[in-house]
Amino acid sequence: MTENLPRTVGELRAAGYTYRTVKEELRANLLERMRTGEPRFPGIVGYDQTVLPEVERAILAGHDMVLLGERGQGKTRLIRSLVGLLDEWTPVLPGSELNEHPLRPLTPSSRRAVEENGDGQPVDWLHRSMRYGEKLATPDTSVGDLVGDVDPIRVAQGRTLGDPETIHFGLVPRTNRGVFAVNELPDLAERIQVSLLNVLEERDIQIRGYQLRLPLDVLLVASANPEDYTNRGRIITPLKDRFGAEIRTHYPLELDLELDLVRQEADLVAAVPDHVLEVVARFARAVRESPSVDARSGVSARFPIAAAETVAAAALRRSGLLGETEAVARIGDTESVTSTLRGKVEFESGEEGREIEILAHLLRTATAETFRARLAGLDLSSFVNLVAEGDIVETGELVPAEEILRQVGTLPGLAKVLDRLGLGDAPNRGEAAAGIEFVLEGLHLTRRMSKASGDGRTMYGSRG
């Protein structure tokens, strides 16, 4: 893909290439996408009216930024998407550790090479995917990891200590002319945070007390939990002051956005009808808002994604056990979520031992809300009449779809129910069974049917 690009400094100048900083590059490409209507942050859901305008203003202003938000709010995904705003290919000097621009060399050795070779200086091309660096801040992170350290072997070879060639550069200088991210910045020891001060303000680096005048060209983006950032004071004040933009992220504000995120991110191994996905999304939102859950920890967006994948896996397991050709999730498959995903939720200290009970209650609430939202106004008396004479309808993990349909038979109003659930005019057997089980569960939760469970089977009967 780089065959037709300039191969020497002379060809680069002749083609009209000029040096642009990373921030100028990001600004120009962002403006171009705004004018053409091309997606600016593909894959980012729920931030169009809140977070993304602030990110765009920070980019246009040329500000380094820190993203504040609880876990699972897409901070890292958003940071990584910034790379898509860089030029697809950028010229670099061959063999340069710092990705130096051929028209703006930094190190003494690169400047000498460009002076000696003139317009014949060779040029390489670097793809934007290689212009991103990332470090998860941990207590054992060192200044050498981020900025660099003196290489004793090079010193022993006779180079002076002030020579940049004696330095083994860290992650930040190696991401020169790119985007560098520090995830969970407050977890860096304060003495390590100090090493980033010059990078952010003076754009040079200091190693072992020696100041190297290497003006770095980098967009620095950090993420942090607001609890750490604002209350514990673990980001030193001078470093906070050097970030130009502080942007708060959030969980999806609306149910539809939560559903869009689950549909986009979940890797489903079986068909999961929309009404089941809606139950999962409402469940996640109910957990987030529950007073029994630690709000400071948050409930990650990965929670409903993992829940949807678990529900799909339960449907696939049933199809394998029963030899069904169609694996379709039912509302009963959501019950497995409460036990498998409780480790993703931090509960308040007074709720110890009640975690499963709390999650089960919230799941029932989400199911009832979805039932009312989806099927409000429909006449469901034909379902209630199924069990009016003391009969039962048996569903559950070990009951095949064919058996559920046989028990129900031709039922008045079923077609309207399936249509309201978005299962179409000609649903397959698994989808029809999923719709029927959802109605039975909804009628139970609204106190129009009784329910008993055991051994992978669920029996719905009359409340009389």
From TrEMBL:
Residues 100-120 are annotated as: Disordered. Pfam families: Sigma54_activat (PF00158). Residues 168-226 form the Sigma-54 factor interaction domain. InterPro entries: P-loop_NTPase, Sigma_54_int. Gene3D superfamilies: P-loop containing nucleotide triphosphate hydrolases. This is Magnesium chelatase. The gene is chlI.
